[in-house]
Structure formats: structure tokens, C-alpha cells
Amino acid sequence: MKTRIVEAGGVRIGGGLPLVLIAGPCVIESEAMLLETGRGLVEVSRSLGVPLVFKTSFDKANRSAHDAYRGPGLEEGLAVLRRAKAALGVPFCVDVHEPGQVEAVAAVAEIVQVPAFLCRQTDLIRAACRSGRVVNVKKGQFLAPDDAANIIGKVEAFDGRGLLITERGCSFGYHNLVSDMRALPVMRGLGWPVVFDATHSVQIPGGLGTRTGGRREFVPVLARAAAAAGCDALFLEAHPRPDEALSDATSQVPIDGLAAILGPCLEIDRIVKRLENRACGAASGG
Questions:
Q1: What's the gap between Cα 11 and its chain centre?
Q2: Radius of gyration of the CA atoms of the chain, in A
Q3: Which spans in the chain are helix H?
Q4: Domain of 145: which CATH number?
Q5: Residue whose C-alpha is closest to residue 266's, from 46, 9, 21
Q6: CB 249 within 8 A of CB 221
Q7: How high is the pLDDT of residue 63?
Q8: Which segments in the chain show pLDDT lower than 70?
Q9: Structural domain boundaries enclosing 242
Q10: How far apart are CA 31 and CA 34, in angstroms?
Q11: How far is CA 234 from CA 70, 82, 175, 183, in A?
Q12: How many CA atoms lie within 13 A of 68 on its CB side?
């Protein structure tokens, strides 16, 4: 099935177009690390011919413990992002946590991202829509796929310029998430492009007591399954040295292993999109 096409900084997502990569470190740890990651991702993107949107955060407001690293904050973080954007030359996707942050973030990022735990915050979604940027809403772990219709209803009511919906697994028992691939066609059936977050989907929330755990080894499996089930973009948090990361160390993937993960996904995506486009053409009498 074809979704609408959403454009962010020259990258077009949806509408039966090839898979897009949304990737970057969980949070800004330093400007040097951010640029190292970004340059590595640009190199992978060019070598594989996959469009790239660079993703990161200036603040991780939702942490398991009060003393966990959160990031440099809004002012310093956006200054770093402006310099990184000039160096990398790709569109950016950046989290917001409060309506008052949106305007400043939208001046730097082509995609304003609403975190999963905030996906029902009407005021935040309204502010994101009024920014004039594409809005990526991460569907909460506590929502069923068809509940995304209510998120879409808000974005459309607030005249959002464009919308992405990201699937990142559903809560299942204690300290675990499950990815139901049926969610992707259900959500795509609502008309907007759907992103699959393969790294957050392998998390074990709170599984390390004061930290969230994760099973990085399952990222390639879930990414391939999502490409086969049909999605418009893959979301992967990546880091030069994931085990040293200050956030999501057990679920981020290493930059030097990213091409091996993406290559099979792109091959699968080409087959799936070709079949989808053929089916759409037959249905329309083309």
C-alpha cells in the first residue's frame, strides 16, 4: 500500500519510494562525537545510496534514574547542532519535550520529533504542527497500532505540514517490548509514512535497575522483518563506540556495522516496494 509522500530537507519519505534511513546517536555527548557519528553515517548513506536524516537529542528527559546523563540542554545543544548541520549537509530530526522548545528546535531541524511517552500530549503536538516542520510522532509503547489514528487526527486538526508515525515496540510483561509486524501495515493503512525504530524496539525498559537494557543482536533481525512487512523508513540509533555511550549503550548499533545491517534491508525493500507498486498499478487499472 502507498502512503502520502512527506518531504523534509529534500529527503522524500513514503509513497512507495525507497527506504529512508533516520539515524544518529541517542543524545549529544560532545560535539566531536556528534560529528564523528554524522560523518560516518553520511559515508554509509552515500555508499549504499540510501537517503539520510540525522537524528539526535539535546536532552533525554525520560531517564530511569535522576542522575543519568541527559545531554547538554537546549541552548548549548542547539548551538552544537547548528554547527553539525553546516558540516554534514543533511536534514536533522530532533526531539522536543515541551511546547516552549519547539520554535527553537524547528529553526535547526527539518523534522520535530515527539517522544513515545509524550505522543498523547496535545499541546506538544499542536506546537510541533504550528512550527511548519514535519512532525515525527513515536507511537507510545502503551498504544495499539490503530490508536495511531487519534494521533493523526490531532496532527490533521492542527494543519500539520507533514507527519511520520514511528513504531518502536509495545510493552509486554515486565522489562520487555515486543514488535508486532502487523502494526506496520495497520499504521500505513492510515495514510501517512511509517517508520520502524529497530533499536528502541530491542530495549529492556528498566531492565538494568537504574538503566534501560537492550539486546543489540536482534536489531538486524527486526530491521529485516520491518522491511519485509513494509515500512517507509528505518530508525536506527548509532554510535562510534556503543558500549561507551552515555545513553542506550546496549541498544545502539556501531557505525562500522551499520552497512551490514542496512544492505539486506535495502534489498528486501526493493522487492517489497516493487510488488506494492505493481499491485497499486493493477488496482488502478494501470
A1: 14
A2: 17
A3: 31-48, 74-88, 102-106, 122-130, 148-157, 183-188, 219-229, 258-283
A4: 3.20.20.70
A5: 21
A6: no
A7: 67
A8: 63-64, 206-211, 284-286
A9: 5-283
A10: 5
A11: 24, 24, 24, 15
A12: 21
Looking at the structure of the chain, the number of domains it has is 1
Taking alpha carbons only, the member of 247, 91, 237, 212 closest to residue 141 is 212
DSSP 198: T
User: Which residues make beta-bridge pairs with 72?
Assistant: none
What is the distance in angstroms between the CA of the first residue and the CA of the last residue of the chain?
15
Residue type, 155: V
Closest listed residue to residue 167, CA positions, set 135, 133, 201: 201
Could you tell me the three cell numbers for 103?
520554535
Task: Answer left, alpha or beta for residue 282, where phi above 0 means left and psi between -120 and 50 means alpha.
Answer: alpha
Q: Which amino acid is at 4?
A: R
Query: What is the pTM (predicted TM-score) of this model?
Result: 0.94
Q: What is the amino acid identity at position 118?
A: L
Contacts for 162 with CB less than 8 Å, ≥ 6 apart: 4, 6, 7, 8, 134, 135
Which single residue is written with the C-alpha cell 557505525? 255
pLDDT confidence of residue 55: 97
pLDDT confidence of residue 22: 98
CA atoms within 13 A on the CB side of 173: 5
